[in-house]
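thought: fold this chain, then report.
action: predict
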Amino acid sequence: MTGDAHRALARARLLVAPALNASLVGELERITGRSAEPLTDVPPPPGAPLLCVGDALPKALRTERLLWFRSVNAGTDSLLSAGHWPAGALLTRTVGRMGERIAQYVLAWVLAECQSVPEFTAQHARAQWQRLPSELAAGQTALIYGTGRIGTAVGRLLQACGVHTVGVARTPRPAACFDRVIGADADREALGAARWVVSTLPLTEATEGFFGADRFGAVRGATFLGVGRGATVDLGALEEALRGGGVRGAVLDVLPEEPAAPGDPVWRLPRTVITSHSAGITADEDVAVDFAACWQAVAAGRRPEAAVDVGRGY
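observation:
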């Protein structure tokens, strides 16, 4: 977005996806001070620039008229891969409190594993009484891929429970929620020492199939938790590591192809639980709060914190 693009907000048309709740649309109208129009594949009359809010951008609107697209989702890979992105158009994403939700999801599964919750649940169904040992999470290591807002939230919550946290980033730099941060090209030793491997990675050209045979082959008994994007994981390599015992178990909230059909082989992966992309469902409040922050930044001529680098894809 150009330096004076904030002036264009005064005359931009607000287009919102029909699926958005009426209460959220009303809040967007209040923030922008204008009435909303439906976001469809038919562009409005020529003239004013376009401010769009939704989860998909029709090809007919991918023109120089697009001033700003506000995605109601955190991931923008499907949006960017759907067609040409207009030069200079701002793209922002929604995170809100998603990081907190995903962090609690990760912690829940970590503690459930430590307390043998799946095993006790199975015993209950069989009316079986058998004592099972527990495991302390404190003092063990979680290797967290991605040190953005979501990865940071995961690291912070696990660290508060005494878990040793190691972040993996494209460009390593110190962060308070990680005991240390390493580069993705230096992760093999850390994979072998981790008790949990957590992926919060976005999907880009660099991360597609990122967790393949080489990385899963370096794991020595860790449980893998996928809460980023499904296509960053090679499911064939994961299955081989699960059957070989290198990966203890897996919790997959995201898959390369969603939803998984009942006959999909992914349901038969050993020691794996799939949770149907539910770890960090975006709430209307997230969309409204993040949009308001972005609106203030753009109106002041600043680049919003939630802006996406369309070249990198995140």
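thought: worth noting. The radius of gyration is 22 Å.
final: tokens above.
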